[in-house]
Amino acid sequence: MLKQLINAGILACLCGSAQAAATWNFQYQGFLDSRDGVFHADRQVNGSFVGGDWNANGIVERSEITSLVLNGVDYVICEPSTNAYYVCSIEAFNYSAADGLVFTAGERGKDPEGLVGGGHYFVSGEGEYHYRYRPGFEENYSYRWTPETTFTITAVPEPSTWAMLGAGLLLTAAAVRRGRRA
User: Fold this and answer.
1) Keyword set for this entry (predicted)?
2) How far is the C-alpha of 156 from the C-alpha of 24, rounded, in Å?
3) pTM listed for this prediction
4) pLDDT tens digits, residue range 133-152?
5) Phi and psi of 53, rounded to 5°?
6) How far apart are CA 23 and CA 156, in angstroms?
7) How far apart are CA 172 and CA 128, in angstroms?
């Protein structure tokens, strides 16, 4: 009976850790600046997202993330601030080991008359775009992805995942120790 209980505990810990949310940190480095036509090897877009594949389809989708940070702005948190003059949104998001990371996110704003405004958005695999305008002035520029742009991503388990893993290891150790005594 005790052996079955221990095995059930181990299984529960292992299953629970598989469903826990994780944080993925990622970085793109090296972009072509549209203003000067020069490739800047040190230019970076740093980001992270928190979520999990809750529907077990092999893809972390927009509905399965609780955070998407790009260069310090969390686009999940700022989405509720959207109004007639300010828009912050994630238009697309998914991540899978097979297809990589795909997202479109950004923010834009304007005054009530539409005379002054600007925006900043990211499209993975394409670029980081900026624009500003006011009477007599307009500026558009981008940092474009190139074949030399590098991408790295790492998953960092949440503390609850580590706790479940630790509990599973403790139960396993207890079962082994009990088996040796018998």
Assistant:
1) Signal
2) 6
3) 0.74
4) 999 999 999 999 999 999 99
5) -85, 75
6) 5
7) 49
